[in-house]
Amino acid sequence: MTRVAIVTGGTRGIGEAISVALKDMGIKVAANYAGDDARAKAFSDRTGIPSYKWDVSDFDAVHAGVEKVEHDLGPVDIIVNNAGITRDSTILKQSYEQWKAVIDTNLGGCFNMAKATFPGMRSRGWGRIVNIGSINGQAGQYGQVNYAAAKSGIHGFTKALAQEGAKFGVTVNAIAPGYIDTDMVAAVPEDVLEKIVAKIPVGRLGHASEIARGVAFLVAEDGGFVTGSTLSINGGQHMY
Ligand code: NDP
User: Fold this and answer.
1) Cβ proximity of 213 and 21 under 8 Å
2) What sequence ranges are listed for the domain Ketoreductase (predicted)?
3) Residue 41: how many other CB atoms lie within 10 Å
4) CATH code of the domain in which 134 resides
5) Is any atom of ligand 1 closer than 6 Å to the C-beta of 32?
6) Considering only CA atoms, which residue is closest to atom 16 of ligand 1?
7) Does any ligand 1 atom lie closer than 6 A to the CB of residue 84?
8) pLDDT computed for residue 103 by the predictor
9) Residue nearest to atom 27 of ligand 1 (CA)
10) Is 183 close to ligand 1, i.e. is its CB under 6 Å away?
11) How confident is the model at residue 235 (pLDDT cuts 50, 70, 90)?
12) How many domains does the chain have?
């Protein structure tokens, strides 16, 4: 049976690697993105994976987007809630808008996507939801009260929804990546990044493909007994 997956923020960075890994598993993939049309087009041309534009923080836009994907590809069996942003600053300088944008996108996006797809998965008796959290949701990070709160929230959201899906063949898991060599990390000042890498036992940044490998494990047909878990993929930087 050919499954259908949506990867939010699936056109670049970690999301791109996830989209490609799922396609390689024989899954029909729709890659969502927010606004970078040129990157999305280049991604679709390169991979043959269709891209769909909507803002995951917009409840109505998510529902319309999911409806379009279902019209084009069929009922959605798998979602990977990967879309995420940072708006870093200490709480002294952090504006309400910076707080709200990160909470609404990183955590609200998971809710909106689950609301649009979980009922169908539940009624068909099979589904896979993977939420991309962060090491900084587990451990906290200076200058990231918004991001750490949203990512920490994802871990609670995952465990709660896993309990609702368990009897219906719907697994819900999270991945907590450490520092991965994407645009998001390229925005970190070089001297700060050097200090971060010095604390990673494996001695380097992770690659997006190393997160995609975890997603492939969690969405597999025979993955039905793994639910409510958080898989940390962080080069040994944070163990608990
Ligand atoms: P990137 O910044 O490289 O890519 C982000 C992707 O998310 C883009 O495709 C972007 O679309 C999309 N996106 C952003 N906002 C929205 C939105 N409102 N609606 C829909 N799509 C949106 O991020 P990474 O690949 O680095 O990160 C992916 C995920 O992994 C994020 O959730 C991040 O928090 C998490 N993570 C990353 C780590 C890292 O070290 N890189 C570490 C731990 C967690 P567009 O191209 O249109 O802008």
Assistant:
1) yes
2) 3-178
3) 12
4) 3.40.50.720
5) yes
6) 34
7) yes
8) 98
9) 14
10) yes
11) very high
12) 1
